[in-house]
Amino acid sequence: MKFLRYILISLYVIKAYCSAHDHLKELISLLLLAGSNQDGNMAKDGIFDLKVNVSSKINKQIMLSIKDIIPNLRNGITTYKTLNDLAEIVYKTYFPDGSNPDDIINSYDIIHALTTSNNNGNNPVSLFTGTSNKNVFIISDLRQNKRLGWYIRDTNLGRNTDINNYYNPFSTSSHHNIEYSSRSDLFKAIAAQCIKDRRTCKDLYFYPRRRFRDNYSEITCYIVTNNDGNTIKHSFIINDLRNREVAHPFTLIENNINNQVSYSVDTSFSPNTLTYRQIENILGGYHKTYFTNRIRDPGIGIIFHSGINLVNQFNRPINNYYINDNELRLNIIGAVIGSNADVSTPEQIKPTDNIVCSKSNNYEYITLENIILKVLEERLNKKQISLEKIEKISNLAKMLAIIKMFPINSYNNFNGIVEDKNHVIEIQKTLSFVNKILNIINRNSICAFTKKRGENSCQHCTSLTNNFDITKSLLNTLFMIRDKKINANILLDEDFNIDSNDDDNENENIDNENDENYNNKFKNLKIKNLYKNAKKASDIWNDLIINYMNNRDEFSEDESKIFITNFNEFINGCKDEISKSENSNNNLIDGITEDDINEMEVKLKKIKTIHKTHNNKLLIDENGNEFVNELEYNSDSQSELYKNKLIENINNAYSLLNENNEEMHICMLFNFGKDDNKEFDEDRTEEIDLLLEDIDQMNINANDKEEFKNKLLYLYNEFDKLWNVFEEDNTNNDEIKNNSEIVLKLRNAFAKKLKKEYFNDNEIQSIQIIDESNIKSSNIINLDHLNVDKSNFIDYISNDINSKSYIKLFFDNMKIKVLMLDENQNELSESIYKDIKLLETNIMKKIQDMKSYSSAEGHYEEADHLLELISNYNELISVCIHENKVNDDGVTDIIKAIDIDSDDELKNRLKYIATKKENEGINKIFKENSDKFKNDENKEKFENYINTNGDDAIRFTFGNDSVNKGTLKDFNRLLKSPANSEGEAIVSIMENSSDEYGVSEISDSYKLKLGLIKCASPMSRDPKDIDDIATVSNKLIKISKNWSNIETYQEHNFRTFMNFLTSVNKYDDYAVGNVENVKNNEEGFIDLSSTYNNEENSLEINSYHDIFSNMNDLLSEINEFENSLNNDDKEQVKEQLNEIKSNIDNAMNELYKHIKGSKIKLSESAGRENSEQFNKAINEFNEISNGAKMLFKTHAKLRSDDNSNSSSNFESKLNSLSLKNKNKNKTLLMKKSIRKIKRFA
Fold first, then answer.
1. Alpha-carbon distance 1030 to 405, whole Å?
2. Which one of 311, 584, 720, 995 is most buried, by most CB atoms within 10 A?
3. Helices 740-757/705-731 angle, 10° precision
4. CB neighbours (10 Å) of residue 676?
5. How many Å apart are CA 730 and CA 160, to the nearest integer?
6. Cβ neighbours of 8 (radius 10 Å)
7. pLDDT band for position 140 (50/70/90)?
8. Nearest 5°: CA angle at 1015, between 1013 and 1016?
9. What is the DSSP string of 60-107?
10. What phi and psi values does residue 166 have, to the nearest 5 degrees?
11. How would you class 1217 by CB atoms within 10 Å of its CB: exposed for 0-12, middle for 13-18, buried for 19 or more?
12. pLDDT for the residue 523
């Protein structure tokens, strides 16, 4: 149990302090300053309080003003002006009137003091001011710290040794840690220079009696990198815990000649040392003075006057801590913000509730820092705040970062630069907060991005690099659970351990062979060798969480802390890894997605609550330090996370166009072959320019306005968030990052479209268009970040469940290849046919595998992956059918869809898994929140509410296992307020979850249900199921971001035909323009008698021919009327005629879209419906197409004199035309031809 001893030590060796008295007054002051006008009162949005969304959930809004957020403003005990005056005191204590803020900030900066010298050319490092990029790298890996210390201690070099060119056995060998391996040469040079500088480095800090052990080290080292765009310098900083001093022995310049990097000493810097006592004098206690029973700090009374409820580590209230506005009693030391009530709407927040922020309710609210940023952005969008005011706010935010970087404990003792993992995360988040404020300033000032960063005035704060041991955190937890004998699925042998037996050997020399063996032990670790039936690490953690919850009494308080902190470390490591462009390729996080991380974070919050309840104590120490801290994602725009987000949202933009234009083939294409045989251009500049045009020209039908508004807003928000990442990344680097240009253009395109379409919406009109004229970048989008053999991609997407995100991308490419075939060619090419048959074979094998399992346990991911494969395969087949290329030649096997509706066993098994997941989620919510449900009979689980014997009872089986599905009646027996549909019932159940625990299982269930619908024929889909999924998906971002048109054939026809009739109604009063007045007949087809007004003139409407004949007569009358006018008369009615013609154009376009969409739906249904129903649909389609030809021909005559509208000739578009430029296979040319030529027989 040596690992337990080490982890316990790391838990309690804490040097930074997070008590409310340390920096809560600064945060509250920042919020108040962000929301105040010049007179110190709260800013308004017109006559209303300015509000921002404080919800931590992506698909939820809790709109609050600062008055709602701060308790004593909410309950009227104090005024905004009173609190703002105190905020001004806090600010002016640091920055007196007339002072230079940068000078003040630098005066607190210990690194600035250490790197200041009298040498010529000295330019000290300023972590928090200036225009250069700074990074602080903490050598926090204990093994690396020990290796560096040993090597310097035990090695001797002559003063004339070249630090770049000598035999140097030191290495940063580390399993899966790119942060160290990428700095290997720099570490070697630093180690060599320290050895050479014996007097100022080696002999002072690495002498023989120094201790460098895994459980304790007397030395912590830092590398501070400063990059001004021309020169890169690395300052070596040593924190000596034993001698209580911080030193800067030297700074190295990085020289890069012909891509050969070397290092040399920068003589403008001098060795420098500051004792902890000297640092305490520099920092001055951050203006705090401690007395026997009180603390004095100007403006600290703002905490009390805000009405914030504080608690100690035992979750007991801190009372009577206020003395006056500048003094509080010492019982505030160690206090933290108390928990808030569970709320889901602003109306539920009571006057007595605590401050609204993540510290008071981690499930519902965002951090105070993010609230401040939202207030700043909102005020800036409404032009309510000056850049000078934001500069002021940034100054105080920098001081907040300094307080956390160079922490002073109670009674003003300095104990070293921040190094503890949780506090490093805390300072990382604060530095990110500062940088986001600076981004706002940079974006709205004269600062402009250029390729040469030295030519602009962009402000920069510093960044801080942390590292996480994903492997140890998982393995140590597995060891703990294994040793408790409460889990039989762990596959680790009893003799497998992490730490070598010689960790305590003080005399060990560097042993690269031993280190290589150490690394190889982890390099070959696979998930399947750690845990039975686990597909990825998140599966393991899900089971370990269940072990922890079901055996809570088996864990001591310390073991519980270890379990939680290991889980926290693993999650943070995953977030760090997937949001870095250079990751460590750790096998243990293969397949981990952002969705997996979100679910793990929900479970982390849950077990934190369990720990608190079980031990009657918060996860903090007596000083208010948290043992758990959640990392934010890195703002690395070139990381896998943001590359995939960009691809996903561009394809969602294409999906929106497909939906609007009734298309089936607009998408982003990728190269899946060998690098030297690329089919598509990966520079997307021209392609995105074409997409921007399409977004601008998108014609949104009035009936679809609200739905499209939500989707346009979603895409705007997604690209806006992406741009924020790119903007921060650009600010902190020397060149404009790849794809910056297209991200900003797409962000602006959706902003412009929203403002154009929804001009009466004040919120939308407040969206700002960002100047994009200076943003020029490369725009390469490919799948190079995907570490698979692209020449064998079919095998990858068929057999690797982690390939799900890329399945659609591959099938989209296949669709385009089919569309590019010669239309006179009735068969697929040999290569396409071969690939389709291979895919079919692979899918059928997976279906047989699913049907062969004796239990569903461990096969959810496989089921989800299988449904994604089948639905995309069927879409590809529908394109082949649409293009009449199914190889129906009697020689080769015909190309056909996979009809799971005809495979009762498969469908039954998949529905079993979906239902099992749903019931598991409901049970978790019910168990944790039983008071929110009807439970007079003290039932223990949802299954007890299900009627299993009635005619409406539904049961699914998987092998010998069975599960009962809840019906609406069953759900209403559970709910206190009855629901009108199963979808509404599920939403009500999810809303009853106070911490989202159980929601992920429901989300997984509905992913499968969505997959089942997508695999079904559009003519056989159940509208009730579709409505339920739509209702639930609005609450589940994991599903709602996966856009698919899952309408039934009948729903689509009704909707699009009504869009046509509504458009006709604008110039033809006989057309029924109200959807409510048009009915479907009993078979689901349109009731034609209700589509056209037959009360006047006794119109007989019995067929589509009757409808179109009447419409055609009106077009002819309009045409004859126009031709009968002389020029003068035409001029008089020109405006009215043009309006009528424009309405006719729109109607013809809606009719054309209806026909296109109908053909797509028919192609998706072909071969999977009974012939009678399918033939009826075909006859309906042909009737409409024939009537449309008549209408389009008359329409062409009406427009024959208007060359500018020649594209309105829809008649020719109904014919099956071949694609032009068949010899040109570039993406751009191909897309242009496909979009311009509509293919309908």
1. 47
2. 584
3. 150
4. 5
5. 40
6. 15
7. confident
8. 65
9. ---EE-HHHHSHHHHTTSS-HHHHHHHHHHHHHHHS-TT--HHHHHHH
10. -155, 165
11. middle
12. 62
C-alpha 513: how far from chain center: 41
Give CA separation, 444 vs 447, 448, 701, 737, 876, in Å. Answer: 8, 9, 36, 20, 47
Residue type, 175: H
**Angle, helix 1134-1165 to helix 1104-1124, in steps of 10 degrees:** 160
Please give the pLDDT value at position 1080.
67
Which residue in 711, 570, 737 sits closest to 1030, CA to CA?
Answer: 711
pLDDT by residue (tens digit) across 501-538? Answer: 444 444 444 455 455 555 556 666 788 889 998 889 99
Residues 1205/811, Cβ–Cβ less than 8 Å: no
Rounded Cα–Cα distance for residues 437 and 728 (Å): 10
3-class secondary-structure state, position 135: strand
The owner of tokens 């208007």 is 1202
Neighbours of 278 (CB within 10 A): 15
CA 985 – CA 978 distance, rounded (Å) = 8
Euclidean distance between CA atoms 687 and 670, whole angstroms: 13
CA distances from 852 to 160, 846, 868 (A): 72, 10, 20
User: Region 566-594: what's the mean pLDDT?
Assistant: 89
**843: number of CA atoms within 13 Å, CB side?**
26
How far, in Å, are 20, 49, 84, 245, 337 from residue 66 at the CA level? Answer: 20, 8, 12, 43, 17
Query: C-alpha 390: how far from its chain's center?
Result: 27
pLDDT cut 90: percent of the chain above it: 46
- Find out whether 360 and 411 touch, Cβ atoms under 8 Å: no
What distance in Å separates the CA atoms of residue 1124 and residue 1145, rounded to the nearest whole number? 21
Residues 6 or more apart whose CB falls under 8 angstroms from that of 362 comprise: 56, 605
Residue-wise pLDDT tens digits, 967-998? 999 999 999 999 999 999 999 999 888 778 88
Number of Cβ within a 10 Å radius of residue 438: 23
Report the candidate in 1066, 1011, 1007 with the shortest Cα–Cα distance to residue 1033: 1007
Of 1128, 1074, 1070, 1130, nearest to 1101 (Cα)? 1070
Q: How many CB atoms lie within 10 A of CB 916?
A: 23
Q: Are 510 and 520 in contact (CB under 8 A)?
A: no
Element (H, E) at 262: strand 260-265
Distance CA 684, CA 662 (A): 24
CA distances from 764 to 445, 656, 751, 805, 941 (A): 24, 19, 8, 32, 45
**What is the rounded end-to-end Cα distance, in angstroms, of the chain?**
74
Place of tokens 């080292």: 221
CA distance 1016 to 631: 41
What token pair was written down for 320? 């009577």
**Of 617-621, 888-892, 1067-1071, which gets the smallest average pLDDT?**
888-892
Q: What is the dihedral of CA 916, 922, 923, 927, to 10 degrees?
A: 170
Rg (CA), the chain: 34
Question: Do residues 1196 and 1209 touch, judged by C-beta distance below 8 A?
Answer: yes
Distance CA 89, CA 1114 (A): 76
| Angle at 731 (CA atoms; ends 726, 732), nearest 5 degrees | 100
Total number of residues shown for the chain = 1241
As a whole number of angstroms, the distance between CA 121 and CA 103 comes to 19
Interval 197-215: pLDDT, tens:
999 999 999 887 766 654 4
CA-nearest of 581, 25, 610, 494 to 301 is 25
